């Protein structure tokens, strides 16, 4: 008797890419779309950033993310903008510096949403571009993901920075000058005045 047992194939990942904006995610999305990340067969870009403030700024970044994804024919999902809920998640940490405890709580909050999205939609891994900005700490991002994602695998990809910058130079992306939340505004009189007016 002859029995043929086919060789088992490596499991292919379905990946959620958590993105903060088009300028930070452009290179990562291109790498994934071109199949440059090993074992990733399917991916979707998740734009869930209730930290971004004010809403007008959020809409600019969201629309730019959508525009870039659609230009490459890439799937994307947009989470709800509930800034009040995000403020509750970082309450008491408002005075923390960039890369401090507030950023840590913010990353964890958004990764928790990515976990739920992945579980509900049949994805088994998450990667992000949250640490791409020079204002952020990649090790802090990685730690927040690893303690938050649970059974969802975290893929700590180090994206091609040269590619990201090359795409950025060739694009007409809307470019922000602060991370996203009202606490990360540059310390200019105009920025501080806008924070006060919108927060009232």
Residue-averaged pLDDT: 90
The share of residues in extended strands comes to 5-15%
**Unreliable runs, pLDDT <50, ≥5 residues?**
1-8, 195-200
Rg, please? 18 Å
Order of helices and strands: EHEHEHHEHEHH
Distance between the ends: 80 Å
Number of helices: 7
User: Could you name the CATH class?
Assistant: Alpha Beta
How many beta-strand runs?
A: 5
Name the CATH superfamily assignment. HUPs
Q: Which secondary-structure class do the elements indicate?
A: alpha/beta
**Second-tier CATH architecture:** 3-Layer(aba) Sandwich
Shape: globular
Helix content: 40-55%
Q: What is the fold-level CATH name, i.e. the topology?
A: Rossmann fold
Biggest sheet record = 5 strands, parallel
How many domain units? 1
Order of strands across the main sheet: 3-2-1-4-5
What does this structure look like?
By secondary structure, this protein is an alpha/beta fold. The protein has helices at 22-33, 55-72, 83-89, 101-121, 138-148, 161-170, 189-199; strands at 13-19, 40-47, 76-78, 125-128, 153-154. Helices cover 45% and strands 12% of the residues. α1 crosses α6 (161-170). The model is unreliable at 1-8 and 195-200 (pLDDT under 50).
What are the key terms here?
200 residues; alpha/beta; Rossmann fold; 5-stranded parallel beta sheet; globular; disordered N terminus; disordered C terminus
């Amino acid at each position: 008797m002859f029995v043929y047992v086919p060789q088992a194939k490596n499991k292919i990942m379905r990946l959620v890419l958590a993105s903060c904006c088009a300028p930070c995610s452009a290179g990562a999305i291109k790498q994934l779309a071109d199949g440059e990340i090993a074992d990733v067969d399917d991916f979707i870009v998740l734009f869930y950033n209730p930290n971004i403030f004010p809403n007008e700024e959020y809409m600019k970044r969201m629309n730019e993310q959508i525009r870039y994804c659609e230009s490459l024919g890439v799937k994307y999902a947009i989470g709800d903008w509930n800034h009040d809920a995000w403020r509750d998640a970082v309450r008491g940490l408002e005075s923390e510096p960039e890369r401090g405890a507030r950023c840590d709580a913010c990353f964890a909050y958004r990764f928790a949403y990515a976990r739920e999205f992945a579980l509900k939609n049949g994805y088994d891994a998450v990667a992000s571009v949250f640490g791409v900005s020079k204002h952020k700490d990649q090790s802090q991002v990685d730690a927040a993901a690893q303690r938050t994602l649970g059974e969802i695998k975290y893929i700590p990809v180090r994206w091609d920075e040269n590619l990201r910058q090359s795409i950025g130079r060739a694009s007409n992306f809307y470019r922000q000058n602060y991370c996203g939340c009202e606490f990360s505004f540059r310390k200019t009189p105009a920025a501080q005045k806008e924070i006060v007016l919108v927060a009232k």
